[in-house]
Write a structure and sequence with these properties.
single chain; 349 residues; mainly alpha; 15 helices
């Protein structure tokens, strides 16, 4: 589904007078509801709902302006109005109970509690927003519920809600979809699978970890961390087999690690650690020119990194460029070429 363009329901240009009008309207129907005519619950709910929307939109405006103090104050007002929408229905006589406005009020409260990192209350309201009326299983509610249970540490449950969010429709009022684009959902889903993969790796469950890393990459092909973690997963398998002297170590894992780590770096992961590991992988796969290029990047940040100099000398030797090999041997303080220390091996003549 294409990302829905945000089109907000605009209130009158003069917001101050609009707010005053809503307050007068609310006071009028509160008096009616609390005194004589209980059947005025619906217009009273609608009044509070409009007030809540107005404060919610103001909060978004303050957030765009990076005015967090005013945004926080306005969010509390919005929460108060949306809570009243729900409370009216709870207090109304059974004969006139209505769910009018309840799904929206629960959705808004869920998003507001989530912003405060109150994950339990947020999850509760998101669930209720989908219970109150047929067809209320909105993209925003599933996404918010996924983020809430993820905040509670339930990553597996979160992935199911994120997947449901991708398939669901947007809520009828676009005011609540400002942070719920298809891309944002895909990123959240990918990160949840990534966390599950890391946890399985910690438990030494290699097969399950690999499945989760694959799902993380498939959910978001721009997730550099997912590619990096999958590369390390493949590389660790290759190294284990090699170090226990398997004659034919898993070359498929080595090639996969090389491709994934290269993708992670191309996506912008320029941390020295992945670059160093990638340079090692280049040597393992026989990509010596690429290895030299990456070891030189390491020396740009750490000019006295001896192992990088040793590795460059080794790569030039393997390429048959003895002149450059000798030059880098001298820089590394070597008497003769040796295989890089991160690989088990002997001196090479």
């Amino acid at each position: 589904m294409p990302t829905k363009e945000l089109v907000y329901d605009k209130f009158p240009a003069e917001k101050k007078s609009c707010s005053a009008r809503l307050r007068r309207w609310t006071r009028f129907w509160t008096q009616k509801f609390n005194t004589i005519e209980g059947d005025k619950a619906i217009p009273l709910q609608q009044s509070y709902l409009e007030s809540g929307r107005f404060q919610y939109e103001k909060m978004l405006d303050y957030l765009k302006e990076r005015n967090n103090r005013k945004a926080e104050r306005t969010s509390k007002k919005a929460m108060n109005y949306f809570a009243r929408v729900i409370q009216i229905n709870n207090d109304a006589p059974e004969a006139i109970k209505t769910n009018t406005g309840n799904p929206e009020a629960h959705l808004a409260l869920g998003k507001l509690y989530l912003a405060q990192k109150d994950f339990r209350d947020a999850a509760c309201h998101f669930r209720k927003s989908m219970e109150n009326g047929k067809g209320n299983e909105s993209k925003e509610a599933y996404f918010g519920l996924g983020k809430s249970v993820r905040g509670l540490g339930n990553y597996g449950e979160a992935t199911s809600y994120f997947e449901s969010s991708l398939e669901a429709k947007y809520f009828e009022n676009p005011l609540y979809s400002h942070d719920c684009s298809e891309k944002q959902i895909s990123i959240a889903l990918s990160n949840a699978y990534l966390e599950l993969g890391i946890r399985q790796d910690e438990k030494k469950n290699s097969t399950k970890a690999g499945e989760y890393y694959n799902k993380a990459v498939n959910a978001n092909s721009d997730n550099a961390d997912a590619f990096y973690s999958r590369a390390m997963h493949h590389y660790s398998r290759y190294r284990i087999l090699k170090e226990i002297h398997i004659q034919k170590p898993d070359k498929v894992s080595l090639k996969s690690a090389y491709e994934d780590l290269k993708t992670a770096i191309n996506l912008g992961m320029d941390d020295p650690n992945p670059i160093s590991i990638f340079a090692e992988l280049c040597i393992e796969t026989g990509s010596y020119n690429e290895a030299i290029e990456n070891f030189k990047k390491i020396l740009d940040d750490k000019p006295f990194e001896k192992i990088a100099k040793e590795s460059i000398a080794f790569c030039y030797h393997k390429l048959g460029d003895e002149k450059n090999a000798k030059e880098w041997m001298e820089k590394a303080g070597l008497m003769r070429i040796v295989s890089p220390r991160f690989f088990p091996g002997s001196i090479i003549d």
